[in-house]
Amino acid sequence: MLDMTTYDEMLGFDYTDEGAWKEFVTSEILPLYIAAVKITEFSQYLRRKLESSFTDAFLENKGIQKMLLGGVTPDGEYAENSLAKFYKERIGVYIDPHLWVSLCKEPDTETLQHIKVHLSQPLIPHRSNDVCDLSSKILRSAGHDLPEIDEDVLNGFIQDPESIIDEFETVYSQLIKISATYNYHTFFAMSTRLTPKFFLFEAYPRLKIHFDAVTALLGLVVTEIPRVNKTAYQGDMVLIGHTPEGFADSLYKLNQIAWYSLSSFALFDGQVPPLRDEFIENIQMSNPGLKPLSEAFEVTKYYLTDNGLNVLGYTGNSRNFYRACEMSLQHFLRIAAPYLFMGLMTLEIERGPRTQYEREIVGSQPALYVCSTYHG
């Protein structure tokens, strides 16, 4: 069993207090948003400037020269921690350094006339856009106005091209700080992603008294299970989930970026902490009695029957698909609860089976697919 006797105390903040959540947003989410917006808008600003007139921009701005040539060796290679390499890999702006060096050695050659600026699509701007989008939704949910970045700030990055690195460092460090590995605000949001209501009340005793207020603040909602009998799925037995694009949903998705895409913001191939692995290790150490998911669930595919009162577990493949177990929906949810609470599994709810061979055996019953989020 999961030891939940001290979850209210161990969180270290009052999750029922709107002010505590707003303080978290101001101190942790706002700096993340500002840094991510600066990266995103500067990337777009720089691209427009170079596309408009590369030669003029290069000649008129020593900063742009440093972006494209900083740290390029006499052999046309990128030195370690080269600024030009950083801009190529992180911003997606670069020239061919070998061609530049070669042309500079040719007498009576107008080097710039033979140089083309390349604009690639690295992963960073997309990830930065995601961080902007998610953090902006959290800020709005908490009543924050979104700060704007004026052109003087963007032009400042051109004058001092190394200064954009500070924004990457901010995004990187803030993602670590707000990850569920280290931050109980995010852990709380993650634990409400798809968890039976009764289990949340056991884990967080104060939540039962303040459930409506927390629901309104974080955007919690009852998750529907298609065609389920209301006598089996009601009251404290329902699954609590997140309203799409709400506070908790956006914070959960930011945590996914911290866990799975942190390396996108790492500088100069620095070693990235394995946040997800650390989280799993902490969970396993603090809950030694929790079975591996493969032992808790006999199979991974379940189908609702008797109007949702019971679930039938099936296993096998298209050549041999057979029933392996049967239990009530409530018993199924009790088994799943601790794994859902801690993010060790996801439960994918479908209106019917995914494959033809499943449908041929079980019909068009609603399906519940148990998916592990870790190996172990």
Provide a descriptive summary of the structure in words.
- By secondary structure, the protein is of the alpha+beta class.
- Among the domains are: 124 residues, no CATH class; 80 residues, no CATH class.
- Helix content is 51%, strand content 13%.
- It is built from 17 helices and ten strands.
- The chain has a five-stranded antiparallel sheet with strand order 8-7-6-10-9, sandwiched between helices. Strands 3-5-4 form a three-stranded antiparallel sheet. A two-stranded antiparallel ribbon has the order 1-2.
- β7 and β8 form a beta hairpin.
- α2 packs across α3, α2 packs across α8 and α3 packs across α4.
- The longest helix is centred in the first third of the chain and has 35 residues.
Using brief descriptors, characterize the structure shown.
about 375 residues, alpha+beta, five-stranded antiparallel beta sheet, three-stranded antiparallel beta sheet, 17 helices, elongated
Largest sheet at a glance? 5 strands, antiparallel
Secondary structure tally, helices: 17
What's the shape?
A: elongated
Rg over CA atoms: 26 Å
Number of strands: 10
Terminal CA distance: 17 Å
Would you tell me the overall average pLDDT?
93
Spatial ordering of strands, largest sheet: 8-7-6-10-9
> What percent strand?
5-15%
Low-confidence stretches: none
* Structure classification: alpha+beta
Q: What proportion of the residues is helical, as a percent range?
A: 40-55%
* Helix-strand topology string: HHHHHEHEHHHHEHHEEHHHEEEHEHE
Question: What's a concise summary of this model?
Answer:
Among the domains are: 25-125 and 144-166, no CATH class; 293-372, no CATH class. 51% of the residues lie in helices and 13% in strands. The protein has helices at 7-10, 18-52, 54-60, 62-69, 83-91, 97-104, 123-141, 151-159, 164-178, 184-191, 197-203, 207-218, 247-260, 275-286, 293-296, 329-341, 356-362, and strands at residues 93-94, 118-119, 194-196, 220-223, 239-242, 301-305, 310-317, 320-328, 345-350, 367-372.
